[in-house]
UniProtKB/TrEMBL annotation:
PANTHER family: ERAD-ASSOCIATED E3 UBIQUITIN-PROTEIN LIGASE COMPONENT HRD3 (PTHR11102:SF160), SEL-1-LIKE PROTEIN (PTHR11102). InterPro entries: Sel1-like (IPR006597), Sel1_AlgK (IPR050767), TPR-like_helical_dom_sf (IPR011990). It comes from Streptomyces cinnabarinus. It comes from the Bacteria. This is Sel1 repeat family protein.
Length: 565
């Protein structure tokens, strides 16, 4: 340990000396010692001194870890200090600002490309052009001034050109449909847009052109009006503001006799938490024989404990259907059980909403939870009910809010911020998330601290994760109780093989050879199947840190044999 500490001090002092001498190459070589050796804690004091001396790469490195560890303002300041002369910092600043929704990001991507030919900056600029709806300009820019080795741009060029091709195909088919006044053809022309919707979140400017096509088709076809309405409600660029227009389109399609409009009105009202309206529209569609509406109406009645009505609608759906049989059995069980827990009782919703709208954050959270967990509401319509309690400091609400952002796959910076707030307030599942995030960024020391906090909640998975990272760090005595907990108390855990491998390793390192044999044998027998299969064979960093219980077992058995001879 003394040798390692002396090496750290020698390397750190050399890094600072190189920074003061303006020797960027040597400073980076010593920075790599800390980064590649996963000694971030030890490197931070030396990077801080190197930053004071003006070393650009130390700015970049320290900024990355400040951001990973949750101090985004400090990361931004570090990036900004040298972004004009260091393309990596220009890129890092651009990414951070983009995550914040700040349009200034484009300027720093531009500088990183023009001043340092940073290919990542060029790609981000191309993506921003596409995000603004400039589908023709994005590929042209990406293909301009390319050099050998710039192959990474082609993936994005192909994507944007393929979207342009699909849009042109839709436009041509709509031209033909309009010329023939053919509503069915107009509705069919929209189908390629359904597959493109997965790109609209990342490139919101595309929705402007797509909206034009939906509008043209909806002028000719009731079914296209329904598709147009769904597009409007799903679009992140229009959001809730588009709901009146979307609802009007659906009502118009319904009034024109398009049966599917009633069902979609039910679905969208249910997603919004408007259950009485949802029931009204489902009822109209179900009475007309719409199977999906019958099913949804049965589920809605069951959730409200209106069991007779629920049974009737499920039977309308089809008495021989396996899912119907399961629902009827579930209703029988609910009847026998009697009452329902407050957190599942939809009958509480009207009163909770009234209190929530009056400013009661606890009622708002309870209302949002019931909507999300038991009333079929869409995540995007639940955020506004959960957020007040999270803002007020409720760690459970903060965790649930982060989970909503994760499920929606949007605003990762907000997602991680809410996980962090919840974790810092002591929420053990949030601590696990922060551990995973730190481990993903190779900040293993920070990950270990989060897993230790997560393990305080009694989870054997978090105990294994904390013990594993301690074992990989060489802190075998610290790791032993965490890994022993899993080995002795959780024999059915999916992660027990991995815990056994590291438990045997630390027992070996602690000189407890006889005790190490059983866990190492258990781990070696199933290691490839239970552990290695979960990790990418291309992730060399993870593989280099992973234990080898078969090798450990051979060494232990050889040592024991030598003792007996």
């Amino acid at each position: 340990m003394l040798i390692v500490s002396q090496d750290i001090q020698t390397r750190g002092e050399a890094l600072v000396a190189a920074a003061r001498a303006d020797d960027a190459k040597t400073a980076r070589r010593h920075t790599d010692f800390f980064v590649l050796g996963h000694r971030v804690d030890e490197g931070i004091p030396y990077w801080e001194q190197a930053v004071a001396a003006g070393d650009a790469f130390s700015h970049y490195t320290l900024a990355r870890y400040r951001k990973i560890r949750g101090d985004r303002p400090a990361a931004e300041a570090l990036y900004r200090a040298v972004a004009d002369r260091h393309s990596g910092c220009a890129y890092g600043l651009g990414v951070l600002l983009k995550e914040n929704g700040d349009p200034e990001a484009a300027e720093w991507f531009r500088r990183g490309w023009e001043n340092g030919r940073d290919l990542n900056c060029k790609i981000e600029l191309g993506k921003l052009l596409a995000a603004e709806g400039q589908l023709d300009e994005a590929p042209k820019f990406l293909m301009s001034d390319i050099e050998l080795g710039d192959i990474a741009v082609f993936r994005w060029v192909q994507l944007f050109e393929s979207i342009r091709k699909e849009f042109d195909h839709v436009a041509a088919d709509l031209d033909a449909a309009e010329a023939a006044a053919d509503g069915d053809a107009a509705a069919a022309a929209l189908r390629p847009l359904f597959d493109l919707e997965k790109h609209f979140r990342d490139y919101p400017g595309l929705t402007v052109e797509a909206a034009g096509y939906y509008r043209r088709a909806s002028a000719l076809s009731p079914s296209a009006r329904v598709d147009h309405a769904v597009f409007l409600t799903e679009s992140e660029t229009t959001g809730d503001a588009a709901w009146p227009e979307a609802r009007a389109l659906l009502v118009q399609a319904h009034e024109e006799g398009y049966e599917g409009a009633r069902y979609i009105l039910g679905v969208l009202h249910e997603q919004r938490g408007d259950l009485s309206d949802a029931e009204h529209w489902y009822g109209l569609a179900a009475t007309g024989g719409h199977p999906a509406a019958q099913w949804h109406l049965g589920v809605l009645c069951k959730r409200q404990r209106r069991f007779d009505e629920a049974e009737r609608w499920f039977r309308e759906f089809g008495v021989d259907d396996e899912d119907v049989v399961a629902q009827l059995d579930r209703i029988a069980a609910l009847r026998e059980a009697g009452g329902t827990a407050p957190g599942k009782d939809l009958r509480r919703l009207p009163a909770l909403r009234e209190r929530a709208e009056a400013g009661d954050v606890h009622a708002s959270y309870a209302y949002g939870k019931i909507l999300c967990d038991w009333a079929g509401a869409a995540d995007r319509h639940v955020v506004r009910w959960i957020e007040p309690a999270a803002q007020a400091g409720d760690p459970e609400a903060a965790y649930d809010l982060a989970e909503l952002y994760r499920a929606m796959r949007r605003q990762p910076a907000l997602r991680d911020d809410w996980y962090r707030r919840s974790a810092e307030a002591g929420h053990h599942d949030a601590c696990n998330e922060m551990g995973w995030l730190s481990e993903h960024h190779r900040d293993y020391q920070e990950a270990e601290r989060w897993y230790v906090r997560a393990a305080e909640g009694g989870s054997s998975l978090n105990a294994m994760l904390a013990g594993k990272l301690k074992a990989q760090r060489g802190a075998h005595a610290e790791a032993e109780p965490y890994l022993r907990q899993v080995w002795e108390e959780d024999s059915d855990a999916a992660h027990r093989t991995e815990a056994a491998g590291y438990y045997g390793l630390v027992l070996h390192r602690l000189g407890r050879l006889t005790e190490a044999v059983e866990p190492l044998r258990a781990a070696a027998a199933k290691w490839d199947e239970d552990v290695r299969a979960r990790y990418s064979p291309d992730d060399l960093t993870v593989l280099a840190r992973t234990a080898d219980p078969a090798k450990e077992l051979a060494e232990v058995e050889a040592a024991l044999a030598a003792e007996q001879s």
